[in-house]
Design brief:
Radius of gyration: 29 Å
Bound molecules: adenosine-5'-diphosphate
Number of domains: 2
Strand content: 5-15%
Helix content: 40-55%
Number of helices: 24
Distance between the termini: 58 Å
Structural class: alpha/beta
Number of strands: 14
CATH class of the largest domain: Mainly Alpha
CATH topology of the largest domain: ABC transporter involved in vitamin B12 uptake, BtuC
Largest sheet: 6 strands, mixed
Length: 622
Amino acid sequence: MIKQRPFLVETLTAIGLILAPFILPYLGFAPNTVNRILVWGLFGVGFDILFGFTGLLSFGQSALYGTGGFVAAYLLTRTGFHHVVSALFIGMIAAAVVGYLVGLVALRRTGIYFAMITVAIAEVFFFVEFNPLADWTGGENGLPGVPSPSFDLGFTTVHFTNGWSLYGFLAFWYFIGIVIALRIIRSPVGAVLRAIRDNPLRATAVGHNIHGYKLTAFVIAAAYAGFAGGLLGIMQAFMPPDAFMFDTSAQLVMQTAIGGTGTLFGPLLGAAVWLSLQDFLQATLGLGAAWKLVLGIVFVLLVCFLRHGIIGGLVDLYALATGKNKQVEEPVEETTGLTAEEEQKIAEAQIAKVPTVAPLPPRHRDSDGYKGPILQATGLTKRYGGLVANSDINFSVNHGELRGIIGPNGAGKSTFFKMLTCEVPPTSGKIVFEGNDITGMTVTDVCQLGLTKSYQVNQLFSQLTVRDNVVIAVLAELRGKFRLDMFRNIESIPGLTEQVDHTLAMVNLTPRADTPVASLAYGEKRRLEIGLALANSPSLLLLDEPLAGMSPRERVETVKLLKSISQGRTMIIIDHDMDSLFELVERVTVLQEGRVLVEGTPEEIKGNPTVQEAYLGGVLEQ
Ligand code: ADP
């Protein structure tokens, strides 16, 4: 919806903000409550980019809110600096710089450890504000006397003092904050942030430097927090020390959860619920300190019954009412009642009719025609403690070759692939890809060089549509591993749509392009898994059991797909389905107990007594 009508949300926001002073008083909202909601809402826009869009739950936002607020308030109350807006921006920059430094430390870990580090950092800031820096921050007294803004228009001066007059000033900055945030989430950076939230491992593997993007989200959230902190001081004519308290961070998290994460407007709505309930319970019902008890119960109920907050609940209701609830669409499982053989025959006949799409040329055209090795691994060994998963493997694949790897479970095939794509470092040995020594490089860098892998267990971006999944992979090729094009419209990237459409056609998912991944049948998910590895036109494609778990029909379809994408490309395929694999590849490497047992053409492998005896137990005898 956002994509189709780019200015709709902005326009509705502007209209809402203009109408609010005329409507909200009738709903019992005092102007000061509305102003507080706006400040929390703006604080939450940044937090939502960090938490809702990138999946990073920080409990340390108070540190940045306090930093921005105190820097702005200090300038305005202690230094003779009078320009309110400039002070707000300086506070914002200070918070962003602090956010960068905090992010560098906190983002070294993920999940609960990241959250715990942010808690600890917020506590450190709280302590520092109260003790070593008390002379500058006023300690527990805070900084009183923060001036309100006024603008000299030549013929008159406009003052934004308090109540509805200050509302205009705050609403203006909230609007600017929303417009900027909408630009960010619609940009390629926003798309990558969502990919990181969904599946950081795959976002890395398709070639994005996710650490850089996470840090970017952290700095953006810090900047929003810093600016909102400055507004807090102006709104209250006093910079309160409790901006730095853990409670501030916790309240922000809860308000965002109540309103709905990943919506930008959730924190505003959550703040409205929270603050109006607070006013109502404390002032109207006179509950005193017990209001938190009631609020706690309301919070638990809302989170339990509205898993995506109020906005998520409204979206679900709308989808239900209009019958557009694609999220709950069940995958289509085909049950024909036929035997596997019959199914296979029918599938072969049907699939033969499906036109194949010529693959995109691999990225490294300068190597076209060169028949030397594209990949060479020498002495590759991987030990896990005492267990030797791969031992002294020498392996070479030529440009344009189709290589199969077989071996019993536990032979070390997956470990070998993980070393080739640099997911795990070898204990010893060397890997050379297109003349570059890639040993010890990152998965992202190796992907950027043109070596990608499809996973044995699907690694998709599960909350995105099929098209958006492929977009994420293609972006990594077109933009490189890290780029801060935060204000660029994703659709304006030259070649993106064509490459995405082409990839979708290659993996035969064009009709499913706008389907959420959760609604795909298993075989379709496997094809998308291959599509993600294929999307950024790799010169070497590794496929880890692409046929695993497929129905006969899906197998035939996928073998056909693999044949078509193999044209002009180098591929190494691991699979247990020998018939399909031998039909596809030119040479086969057999691994056993972490070593190369034998290598040869499919015919040689089929007829090799060592393989039959040691591994296949004679099953390949014709
Ligand atoms: P395959 O793919 O051929 O089934 P793997 O490469 O998955 O074999 O595993 C080879 C051996 O390495 C197995 O014995 C497995 O238990 C061990 N292994 C794989 N990954 C790890 C790990 N992360 N930690 C410890 N042992 C591992």
